[in-house]
Amino acid sequence: MHSSHLLLEEPIRMASILEPSKSSFFPALTKIVGTLGPKSRSVETLSGCLKSGMSVARFDFSWGDAEYHQETLDNLKVAVKSTKKLCAVMLDTVGPELQVINKSEKAITLKADGLVTLTPNQDQEASSEVLPINFDGLAKAVKKGDTIFVGQYLFTGSETTSVWLEVDEIKGDDVICLSRNAATLAGALFTLHASQVHIDLPTLTEKDKEVISTWGVQNKIDFLSLSYCRHAEDVRQTREMLKKLGDLSQTQIFAKIENVEGLTHFDEILQEADGIILSRGNLGIDLPPEKVFLFQKAALYKCNMAGKPAVLTRVVDSMTDNLRPTRAEATDVANAVLDGSDAILLGAETLRGLYPVETISIVGKICAEAEKVFNQDLYFKKTVKYVGEPMTHLESIASSAVRAAIKVKASVIICFTSSGRAARLIAKYRPTMPVISVVIPRVKTNQLKWSFSGAFEARQSLIVRGLFPMLADPRHPAESTSATNESVLKVALDHGKQAGVIKSHDRVVVCQKVGDASVVKIIELED
Ligand SMILES: Nc1ncnc2c1ncn2[C@@H]1O[C@H](COP(=O)(O)OP(=O)(O)O)[C@@H](O)[C@H]1O
Ligand SMILES: C=C(OP(=O)(O)O)C(=O)O
Ligand SMILES: [K+]
Ligand SMILES: [Mg+2]
């Protein structure tokens, strides 16, 4: 059993597999993003989600109005306060998503080998023969033989509510399709995916812009998930827009790659974006099944080398209705970690699933097991080689901190940072222990009032593998004199001890600036 991503050089003792894992304060280094909805919006459930390891909450504006999402977010804030677990907020756009309009919400039955017409005429009632859609350019975009997929929002693939259509004929603005399987479309929202077809709609729609500039601004969103990102220009335009929205100039843009168009422009998109979401729900139907794993591995590698966080979606769909993942899903979660994901995004599982808390907990446990056998040594060498020489000073410091921490078996790395850059660079080298990133607030002014930076930077590390933020007291001056360094370090150590990640006699690696010099120091605790 030899795989370069695994640290299993010796044949492992089978009995050791059965040894129970030690529980720790941090369920896993890998982060979990939960999509919030009907089954995950009470304060009680949200508290459970936070305690079991969700550190980013995703609000998907493909459905639901601003008021509904606000109620959920307000409950989340209550849960954050009572559990004392930080959680970042991600707004997910609608983008050029095609949807079936079923006003009556009556169930629609489609027969295998039956014909069904997709029409932009929304005055027509949805029925077994006609499905009205929200886009009038489909007839021009597809041709006979193309594949179109219609499924329940966040379809899991195992429902009988999704249908595979083959384009049979184009008639004016209508597209007549042959249904390849029988299905009953039940529910309020159906999305439509035309495989490998360019949809001539903007990546950021008017509705998206409105939601971002109202709901997004009010809630100071940490992340914008840019659905159906297809070009680097999509990210640049979104960035321009955010810049004009006050605090949102600090919002990070995560480009969601969901189709072949995004895959084709992946390198340029990665350069512009702050992070990437590999949206396997849609990619899994846009790509031939045998190619999905290849894109996953290649894209994660590129994100890792660029030092940008990568999020993978759709890992345990079957847990929407079940307490245990399938064997394939359980293995898939572990492989996501070994392939280099920073975070796992749960969709239907937390949104409308029966077991949101249990799902987060099980995914976290699988991630933690996989992290233990991740071949950090090989990964580290590969990354150093990729970066080449000369390294920037900061990158050299960051990689040295990780190397030192592993050599002395440190229990944590404590990294001082204001912009978050140093902590992100440490995470890039995938330390095997948690990194407490102590974000030192900086005073800023817009000539009207004073405020402190740091909150965005702290929350934005909640999506990066291994980083656990702590916001330092703003009364500590930002300049790094040795007296302030010592007092902030003491607070960080106390925080680590309270959390149970640091014990007496542990070694801790600290990365900070002393005067003008960046230093990595190793401290050994007494009691
Ligand atoms: N307020 C601070 N006190 C002590 N050291 C700091 C502080 N802020 C950053 N550092 C250290 O300075 C170096 C540069 O880190 P970086 O995150 O790029 O800083 P900045 O926030 O100034 O961009 C790193 O070694 C980091 O640990
Ligand atoms: C998360 C996904 O997308 P959506 O925004 O449609 O839920 C996905 O396709 O994997
Ligand atoms: K969406
Ligand atoms: Mg999707």
Automatic annotation (TrEMBL):
<keyword id="KW-0808">Transferase</keyword>
<dbReference type="GO" id="GO:0006096">
    <property type="term" value="P:glycolytic process"/>
</dbReference>
<comment type="pathway">
    <text>Carbohydrate degradation; glycolysis; pyruvate from D-glyceraldehyde 3-phosphate: step 5/5.</text>
</comment>
<dbReference type="GO" id="GO:0005524">
    <property type="term" value="F:ATP binding"/>
</dbReference>
<dbReference type="GO" id="GO:0030955">
    <property type="term" value="F:potassium ion binding"/>
</dbReference>
<dbReference type="Pfam" id="PF00224">
    <property type="entry name" value="PK"/>
</dbReference>
<dbReference type="InterPro" id="IPR011037">
    <property type="entry name" value="Pyrv_Knase-like_insert_dom_sf"/>
</dbReference>
<dbReference type="InterPro" id="IPR001697">
    <property type="entry name" value="Pyr_Knase"/>
</dbReference>
<keyword id="KW-0418">Kinase</keyword>
<dbReference type="Pfam" id="PF02887">
    <property type="entry name" value="PK_C"/>
</dbReference>
<dbReference type="GO" id="GO:0005737">
    <property type="term" value="C:cytoplasm"/>
</dbReference>
<dbReference type="InterPro" id="IPR015806">
    <property type="entry name" value="Pyrv_Knase_insert_dom_sf"/>
</dbReference>
<feature type="domain" description="Pyruvate kinase C-terminal">
    <location>
        <begin position="395"/>
        <end position="515"/>
    </location>
</feature>
<protein>
    <recommendedName>
        <fullName>Pyruvate kinase</fullName>
        <ecNumber>2.7.1.40</ecNumber>
    </recommendedName>
</protein>
<keyword id="KW-0547">Nucleotide-binding</keyword>
<dbReference type="InterPro" id="IPR015813">
    <property type="entry name" value="Pyrv/PenolPyrv_kinase-like_dom"/>
</dbReference>
<dbReference type="InterPro" id="IPR036918">
    <property type="entry name" value="Pyrv_Knase_C_sf"/>
</dbReference>
<dbReference type="InterPro" id="IPR040442">
    <property type="entry name" value="Pyrv_kinase-like_dom_sf"/>
</dbReference>
<feature type="domain" description="Pyruvate kinase barrel">
    <location>
        <begin position="30"/>
        <end position="360"/>
    </location>
</feature>
<keyword id="KW-0324">Glycolysis</keyword>
<dbReference type="InterPro" id="IPR015793">
    <property type="entry name" value="Pyrv_Knase_brl"/>
</dbReference>
<keyword id="KW-0479">Metal-binding</keyword>
<comment type="similarity">
    <text>Belongs to the pyruvate kinase family.</text>
</comment>
<dbReference type="GO" id="GO:0016301">
    <property type="term" value="F:kinase activity"/>
</dbReference>
<dbReference type="InterPro" id="IPR015795">
    <property type="entry name" value="Pyrv_Knase_C"/>
</dbReference>
<dbReference type="GO" id="GO:0004743">
    <property type="term" value="F:pyruvate kinase activity"/>
</dbReference>
<keyword id="KW-0460">Magnesium</keyword>
<dbReference type="GO" id="GO:0000287">
    <property type="term" value="F:magnesium ion binding"/>
</dbReference>
<keyword id="KW-0670">Pyruvate</keyword>
<keyword id="KW-0067">ATP-binding</keyword>
